[in-house]
Structure prediction request, 174 residues.
Amino acid sequence: MNAPNHSEHSELEGRTVAHSAVTLSQVIMPVHTGPGGVYAHGGEIIKLMDTAAGLTALRHAHSPVVTLRVEGINFLQPIRVGNYVTVTAKLTYTSQSSMEIQVRVTAEHVMKEKVWEALTAYFIFVALGEDGKPKKVPPLIVQTDEERRLFEAGEERYHTCRIDDHSKILCAID
Ligand SMILES: CC(C)(COP(=O)(O)OP(=O)(O)OC[C@H]1O[C@@H](n2cnc3c(N)ncnc32)[C@H](O)[C@@H]1OP(=O)(O)O)[C@@H](O)C(=O)NCCC(=O)NCCS
Prediction:
């Protein structure tokens, strides 16, 4: 995992994307597989992703955070026992109390030195105050063209992802 920079920030001073980015890695062992004992249990991968995203949100918000929604989990390539999985999480967009975190998963067949992109998903976390209610988070400082592009895409999703009158969430992830 990246080393945090514990600089003296005031509560709502902006923080960069790099400030809160997180990398977690794990070898898939038999205990992480589904009943067949060959492929990674999807829930184990999602748990790693949620943990990495939660750490990112925590580093940015400096207050307790909860997972609100997850978008775009599609396992398109199998991950097997023995594969070395790396999860990277970085903030793409922040609003008032909500934070969108892009989580990428790569897997490696160590013996063959073959690495592939397993999936990318977006986790939305909300920071909570001591009263358990949503709490304002610091603004996100974007520094590169890629960070700006992701921020604009996240902002579009923030305005698109809403719940309709039948409690159905309307959202489109490209
Ligand atoms: C997260 C939670 C506190 C939000 O409560 P809420 O009453 O919807 O609060 P608000 O309406 O003030 O919304 C808070 C933020 O979430 C955003 N939000 C709410 N519903 C959303 C949705 N369906 N999609 C995207 N964002 C949403 C709001 O836009 C707001 O963001 P902003 O402050 O940046 O503008 C509440 O839903 C909750 O406690 N959920 C359970 C979380 C949890 O326990 N997770 C662990 C997994 S089991």
Summary: Helices lie at 17-20, 42-61, 145-160. Strands lie at 15-16, 22-27, 65-71, 84-94, 98-109, 114-127, 140-141, 162-163, 169-170.
